[in-house]
Give the backbone structure.
Amino acid sequence: MESVLLPTLTKKEEIDRIINNTIDKVLVLRFGRISDENCLLLDDILEKSARDVSKFATVALVDVDSDQVQVYVNYFDITLFPSTVFFFNAHHMKLDSGTADHTKWVGKFHEKQDFIDVVEVIFRGAMKGKLIVHCPLPPERIPKYQLLYKDV
Amino acid sequence: MEEKNTKAKKKPSKKNEFEFCKVCRFHHDHGPRHKYFPRHKELLSAFLNRFRSKIADVRFFLKNPSFLRPQEESQNRVWCVFCDEDIVELGSSFACSKAINHFASSEHHKNVKQFLWKHGPSMDCADDFKISDADVAKWVRKCTALGNKDASSCTGQLSSDIHNNKLEFERTEKVQTHYINPNDLNDVKPLLYNTNEYQISHSGLPGVAHYGSHLNVDASHLPPGVIGMASNSSSLYGDSSGNVHSGAPPPWLNLNQTDMARVQEKMPVKNSKLNPRRVGAAWAERRKIEMEMEKRGEAVNSNTDADWLPNFGRVWQSGTRKDSRKEFEKEKRKLVVAAESISMESQERKLVKTESVSMESEEPVQIQPYVSKRAVCFAFTILN
C-alpha cells in the first residue's frame, strides 16, 4: 500500500538524490516495512503531518526489504524497525531523547503534534548550527527499547 | 569532600512539566525561570510593543469619539492577547466602543496581571494595557454630546435605508466632483484605502479620521453616504487632473509604479536572511549554484557516484563523523574481501577437484617420504 503523499524509496540512487535535493529543509527518512504494524501507525502520522511541516521539512519512506538499501541500513546501524533518521543539508541531525541511540528515532509517535514538535526542534537547532538537539517530548511519550551490540 | 557532595547534589536540576510559552511560541520545560531568559525577554518586549500600538489606536478613539458605520464594523476589530478573544464591533454605534469597554473591564485587568506575572519580569507596564474608568466616563460623555449634536443636524445617519437616502439626496444640491449614485450606497463600494490592520494602526487611521471630521462639519447639507466618500476621495487623490470621461490615466497606474519600486527595493533584503552559520550552509550554497547551472543546461560534475555516503555519526563508533565513514568503508572492504576470498576458495576447490580427476587419468602420483640432507650426509659418512 503506497502512500499518496509520501514517496517510497527502494534504491540507493533515489535516497542519494533526495538527500542532495533537499536544501534548507529537514529531511525525514523512515526506514521500515509496510508489513509491520508499528510502521503503519508511524506512516499514518507522517502522512497526516507531512503537509503541516511541508514548509520546513520533507518526509520520505524507505523500504528496508530492498537489496540496494541494505548499504544504508548497515551504515545507519538500523537494527530495530521502524527507525526515523533526520537530515539537514545532507548533514545528519542527532536527537537526544534520553534513549540509548541519539542518531535516530526508533518506534512510532504518540500523536501528530509530537512529530511536528520534534521536526520543529530539529529545524530550529539546525538553523542555529547545532548538530544535536534535545527532544521536546515528555519521557512517557518516547518509545523505550533496548539497544544490543551485535546481538549481545 | 562535603563541598563536592553538595555540588553533586545541586547538579541534577528539577525536571518541570512541558508547557507552551505564548510569547516564544514553543514548548519548554524550563519552568518559571523561562521568563528570565534573554530571548524570551526580547520576544516579550516585541510582543508587548505590538499590542501597545493597537491600544494606542483605541485610545485615539477614546479621546476623539466618532461614529462607526455599519460597513466598517468588520474592519474595526481587535484581538486581545491577554484574554485570548477577538473584540468585534458588531452593533456598536461608536468606533472601538466594545474594545474600550473591554479594556476597562475588571476581567481584562485580571488577565493582564496574570499574563505579566507569568511571562514578564515586571508588573510596571500593566497600566499601559488598561483603560481607567475615569477615561471611559469622559468618553461616554463625549459620545452622548456627539450623538445629540448629530441627531439635530442629520437624521438616519447610520441607517442603510435606500428610500430615505435617495429622498435626501434629491433634495440637496448637485455635488460637483466625484459624487456617487445614492442607489449604490448599500452596494459594495470600491476600497479607497488599504484596510490592512498594520497600515491602519501605523498610519493613524487617515481614512476613518477623515470620516469623523467630515461627518461633523458637512453633515448639514449632504446625505451621510456621500460625505466621507466625496471628501475622502478628493483628499486621497489630490488634485483631480482628469477622469474617465476626459481620458486621463487611472491613478492606480501611477501608484503602481512607485509601489513596484518599493517592492523591488525590499526584495533583495529578504533573500539573504538565512543564517550563514546554519548546518550545512556552505554545502547548500554550492548545491543551489549547481542546481541553477543544471537548470540552465550546463554540464555539472555530479558528486553522487555509487559509493557516496552522507555525513552520518554512527552508533557504535567514537570520534568524528569522517572517522565513522572511514570505518564503515573499511568494514565494507573487509566484507568485500571476505566475500571474494570465499568465492575464490570455492572456485579453487572446484579447480582442484577437476585437476585431481584429470591427473588420476594420466599417471599415478608418486608419494615419497621426506629425507633431510643431514640424514643423507650421515648415511654417506657411515657407509664410507
In short: The two ends of chain A are 35 Å apart (CA to CA).
